[in-house]
């Protein structure tokens, strides 16, 4: 039988309590009726109290029952607020406390919603669990990637060159821009193109009372970017000496200035910093009586002149052993990490870099050989070729050989592109050669250079500290528990010790790499978490934090049965590594638990077994343990997720049993001193258009805020039934 919910016993939550109401009174009917089974089956829920009443606070003093919600829904003070206040001790904001919700494209931070959320929580008597300080998702990628952009090369300011960004030349272009002339001088003023002289011409025979009575755009749709410095250049002359006021930018704000012109054609420059993106050049000349002519308007920015820079693209090194590549008559072994060539008097050549490992784009290249020779020698060559057919490109250069160790720099211009084999040809040279490495660099012309890894780390350490400090100021010491780092473990790979690697742009899909920002790729696997933890503790203490601060590392799939809980084992392992510096302290582990209840009994048993295993591993870690994002869907015998509208009564009750199992096992397995809380991620079933488990029965209440069977299972788990 399908379970069709009736709002006959709705448990809508008031500010004080849960009120059971009924819109049917059988005693008033003149004939007897049987109560529908679906209604009778739900009536037992009326006997349940608010969820938080089932928490034994004396046995679990640090345990908090939490709910995730939209911060603005709680701030609004309506039904969501009353539900949270009545049933829970603690709240998690779904998105409001994440990086992308607070940090704008220019790096400015707005914590208004966070501050209002904190104020509302204080008024409602609830605590807040902070979610989240460090994460790779929901970051402001535009801002963060902008921090890592190439830096302009350091040159003498006098050597900088002007680069044109915009130009309108009235000797070749018509005039189509906005202009406005006040009625006072409309009959005595014209604005338009003078085709004979190839310029824009403004004629005013009578001066106006105000300068802005004659105003006109002389350029529009500018490509300027807020905060960047530019130069405005105008070629102008007048029938007499005068002044032209102007502003550069959109209507919302402009950089303003003025040019004093005379009767000769002259260029005038005005350096400004854009106060907004784009816009126009607005000019005003109502106070001038006569003719103003403008030949062109240009916008420039200054930058370092272009220079040639060598960018490393491929490197070949060697491991001790036999010759590692395809043999071409000579097979020098690798000794002490060097290809060791001993001359025999015969003509010799051998691969030093296979083409499959040396893909090159079209361009100019240099190759560096880290080489040691027993004596000076001549006749040695290096060939780079992208194939063996008649149409393959082959470039051969002489290699100067000097006694001792030295790096040889060799030019390879006009490379066509492809996979290039690199072949060293001692030919008949009589020197013993030890080649340690081959480094291939592309020669590019540029006026900026990439930041070094150290510079990137330093920049992002500052950015992380700035973000954490801003959040701690906004929360003012009220939020005492945080997801300090979220979802760090990849769930794949091998870190060299048999555990999963960390999340990285290198081990995710191209789409994820584009949409996310992986701080750990720049800060380092160990230092990433250490930097966030240190920032959290520092800025919490500096901004009103007096109660103990609890920092959790939060992750999903820790209950995984497909890898026998390898992810939670890996997380515990990584926490040990992060804390190995003797300074970093992680207080707890958050397990998200976005689970599903399975109709297949064998599958469901496996899921339950690995939930227990996860709790056992977490208990053995000695860390505080919090279920941070618990919700549940249902998977039928065919492996299909069942939507709320298609759920049966039996399926709802199976979910209730699984909730009870999870909550009860948490209290049974996790020692009381480590029990920090359980947060239900979804109060109500997910709407069909939701991006999170859309249309699934994930709530303890239905969409109308009526209690579901899962409410009973959750409550029974809390009470230990």
TrEMBL record:
Pfam family of the protein (one): Glyco_hydro_10
Q: Where is the GH10 domain?
A: 424-718
Matching SMART domains: Glyco_10
- Tell me where on the tree of life, at the top rank, the source sits: Bacteria
Entry's EC annotation: 3.2.1.8
Q: Which GO biological process entries does UniProt record here? A: xylan catabolic process
Q: Which Gene3D superfamilies would you find in this protein's record?
A: Galactose-binding domain-like, Glycosidases
Q: Which GO terms describe its molecular function?
A: endo-1,4-beta-xylanase activity
Leader sequence range is 1-20
What is the catalytic activity of this protein? Endohydrolysis of (1->4)-beta-D-xylosidic linkages in xylans
Sorted alphabetically, which keywords does the UniProt record give? Carbohydrate metabolism, Glycosidase, Hydrolase, Polysaccharide degradation, Signal, Xylan degradation
The text of the family note is: Belongs to the glycosyl hydrolase 10 (cellulase F) family.
Name the UniProt record assigns to this protein:
Beta-xylanase
User: Which species?
Assistant: Bacteroides cellulosilyticus
